[in-house]
Design goal:
single chain; alpha+beta; 2 domains; 5-stranded antiparallel sheet; two-stranded antiparallel sheet; 9 helices; 7 strands; 62% helix
């Protein structure tokens, strides 16, 4: 009998990631492993788990485990700065989406058994997301205005109303939790105020957060790079490139803020476009498979 933890020793001796075939792990993950719901995208991943600094991606045939520099539970900000830089997240998202358009749909027989119209759903949703992506790419600043002046305030108000609803019992009418009610009212008022915030404030807030994030990433990564290649087992060259590009983007944010906002929206649109293409292609593949069978 062997569990996953028995194969993780190399991670403490300069190896950044170990790939462990599932057939060699005979025991299920112990209770120390928790589901990781937010992850840097990676091709082939069907689930992710964490145990402290250990981060495992489960694929169909293996466990891929790496050791983060910081435990996201104990040091969430340092984790974002060092283990999940903004540019790395964007790059890996693009890579995963592109890889997903090239792979097979998956277990087509299971999909067909569970939902005979699965291909139609994927094609229609894919086409819709493609159209949204094209709109965002061609209208980046208009999209940003819509998100900040309408979408975000409505989401905040919706969250406030949901919090209020959880705090109040309708029949008979009574308050279950005073703190929750007040919290919901404050959130709802914040959402109403958000409708009237000037666009400049949204731009300054967003770009300020991104600039601080990327500047901190550059400082931390370059500091590790000074110690030599052994200090960056996840990839010396790639992390130095990320640090330099992050510094360049900080300079561009200060110099051309409006253009950077437009660029960010275009990146968002391209991600949506690739996601739509992935769904559309998978739907078409599934349809062809159904026709052959």
């Amino acid at each position: 009998m062997s569990n996953l933890d028995e194969f993780l020793g190399p991670l403490h001796h300069g190896v950044w990631e170990v790939e462990i075939p599932k057939v060699t792990v005979t025991e299920p993950l112990d209770q120390g492993w928790e589901i990781s719901r937010i992850n840097v995208p990676s091709p082939g991943t069907i689930a992710s788990y964490r145990k402290g600094q250990y981060h495992v991606h489960e694929t169909a045939t293996e466990w891929r485990v790496h050791l983060d520099n910081h435990d996201p539970k104990r040091h969430p900000i340092l984790h974002l700065i060092d283990d999940a830089p903004l540019l790395l997240m964007i790059g890996d998202t693009f890579g995963t989406l592109i890889a997903s358009t090239r792979k097979k749909t998956g277990d087509e027989a299971k999909i067909l058994e569970e939902q005979s119209k699965a291909w139609k759903d994927q094609v229609l949703i894919g086409l819709f997301i493609i159209l949204v992506g094209i709109f965002v790419i061609t209208n980046p600043l208009l999209t940003f205005k819509g998100i900040t002046r309408l979408f975000v305030p409505l989401v905040i108000i919706g969250l406030g109303m949901f919090t209020i609803r959880k705090s109040v019992r309708v029949q008979p009418l009574r308050i279950n939790e005073d703190a929750g009610l007040y919290r919901g009212i404050i959130i709802s008022i914040a959402g109403i105020i958000a409708f009237y915030l000037p666009l400049t404030l949204w731009i300054v807030g967003l770009l300020g957060i991104l600039a601080v994030w990327m500047l901190a990433t550059a400082i931390v990564l370059l500091g590790r790079a000074r110690k030599g290649r052994s200090a960056i087992p996840e990839g010396f060259v790639s992390r130095v490139v990320i640090a330099i590009l992050s510094l360049c983007l900080v300079g561009l944010i200060i110099t051309y803020p409006i253009e950077i906002v437009g660029l960010l929206m275009i990146v968002l649109g391209v991600i949506g476009l690739l996601l739509g293409i992935m769904l559309f292609v998978n739907g078409v593949r599934l349809k062809r498979w159904m026709e052959r069978t």
